[in-house]
Amino acid sequence: MKDQPNAMAGRFPGLSSKLIATIIGVILLVEIVIFLPSVASFRTTWLEDRLQVGVVAARVLDAVPDVMALPRDLTDRLLNSAGAHAIVYRREGQSQLIELTNPVMPDTVVTADLRQGDLPSRVWGALDTLVAPPGRTLRVVGEGDLNESLVELLMPEAPLRRDMFDYSRSFALVSFGIAAVTAFVLYVLVSRLFIDPVLRVTRNMLAFRKAPENASLILIPSRRSDEIGILERELADMETELFSMLRQRRHLADLGLAVAKINHDLRNTLSSAQLLSDQVATLDDPKVQRLAPRLVTTLDKAIGFAQAVLDYGRETSIVPQFAPVNLRTLVDDAAFDARVAGNPLIAFDNGVDASLMVEVDAGQMGRVLVNLLKNAREALEAVPGEAQDFRIEARASADPERTVITLRDNGPGLPPRARENLFIAFEGSARSGGTGLGLAIAREITEAHGGTLAHVDEGQGTRFDITLPVRRTEG
C-alpha cells in the first residue's frame, strides 16, 4: 500500500478549521442581519433627538408675537443646540423660520422624513447616510407637539454620519467579541462530542491501513449509542474480520505455495509412472494385461487432479484481456477441446448465431465453455446402461445490455449434494473422483468479466447460463 503522510497533517487544516470558520461566519452573518435595523434605529433616534430641539424652538416661536423681535444670540443658541442651520415651523397654513445670523447655503439637500416609520425606509436611509459623499445637508421633517404642526430642520449630515460610523465600529467590536466567544464555546463542545471521535476514528483507519495485520491497532469502540458509536463498533468489527481474513489469506498463500511445489513435483513423478505403466501394458503377461488398465486410469486421474490444482491457481490470477470474439466459433472450439464435437455417443448442437460477437478474453472464456461442456460430456458418459439419445446444445441471446450463453444437456441432472456445493472448490464435483475445480474456475473467470454463471433448474437435464454485460468504450 502507498503511504499518505499528509493525510492527517494536523488538527486545524481539517474539520476543526472548517467548524470554526463556519461558526464565526454564521454568527457574523446573523450580526449583519441585526446590524441593519440596529443602525437604522440609531439614525432615527439621533434625528428625533435633534427634532425635539426644533420642537422646543417651535414653542418659543409660538410664545413670541414677532419672530423678528427675538434676540439673535437666542436663536443662534437654539439652532446650535439642535445642530441646525435653520428651523421651520408650520402650523395652520402659516410658516415661521429662524436661521443663523450668517446663513449657510446648502449644495445638496436630502430629506429625512421621520413620519415614515416603516423598516425598509429606515434601513435604506441609514445605508444612504453611511455611503453618501461628504457635504450634504439634511432636511429633517417631523411632527410638532401640536395637532397638524410640522417642524423642519436644515442641518449638515456630517455629524450624523460621524456618529453612525462610531456606532458601527462599536457594534463590530462587540459582534466580533460575541462571535469569538461563541465560536470558542461551541468549538469546545462540538470537538468533545464530534470532532475528537472523528479524528480518533480517522487516525485509527490510517494506522490500520498501514499495518492491517497488527491486532493492537484494531479500534476499541466507545460506549456511545449514537451514530458515532455505531460507526466505531462497525469499524472495529470490520477491522477484526479483515485482520482474521488477512491472516487466513497469508496462511493459505503459504500453504498454497507449498502445495503448488509439491503438486508440480508430484505431477512429474506421476507422468514418469504413466510412461512406465504404458510400457508395462505392452507385456504379454495376463495379470499385467488385467491390472494395467486400472493402473493407467488411476494415474490419469492423479495427473488430472494435479493439473487441475495448478490451473486453478493460475487462471484466477490472470486479468482478462478483452477483445471482440465470434461467439459461435468460440463455442465450436470449446466443444472440440472438450471432446464433445464428433463424440459418437453425444449429439452436439451449436445454435449460436454466426454473426454474434462478444468482447471477452477468448482464452479464459473458452476455458469456461470447455469446463462446462466437459462436465456435461462426463455426466452423459457416466450414465449406466445402453447408449441413449444424449444431446448437448448451446444457445445465445443478446440485447443492448447483456449477452446470455446457455449450455444444456438432457442427462440425469445434478445430484442434490452437487447442487448444494456448486462453485465451491474441491466440493462441487458431481462425479466420484472429481475435484470440483472446473465450476469454481468457470465462475471466477465469468465474474472477472463482470458477468455471472448460474445453474438453472429445469427439472430434467442440466443447464448453465453465462450472463456477460455488453462492454462500452468511453468516448
From TrEMBL:
Family annotation (Pfam families): HATPase_c
Reaction it catalyzes: ATP + protein L-histidine = ADP + protein N-phospho-L-histidine
Gene3D superfamilies in the cross-refs: 6.10.340.10, Histidine kinase-like ATPase, C-terminal domain (3.30.565.10)
InterPro entries on file: 2C_sensor_his_kinase, HATPase_C_sf, HATPase_dom, His_kinase_dom, Sig_transdc_His_kin-like_C
Keywords: ATP-binding, Kinase, Membrane, Nucleotide-binding, Transferase, Transmembrane, Transmembrane helix
Transmembrane segment boundaries: 20-42, 171-195
Ranges for domain Histidine kinase: 261-472
Record-level Gene Ontology MF annotations: ATP binding; protein histidine kinase activity
EC number annotated for this UniProt entry: 2.7.13.3
Group of enzyme by EC: transferase
The protein's name: histidine kinase
Species in which this protein is naturally found: Devosia marina
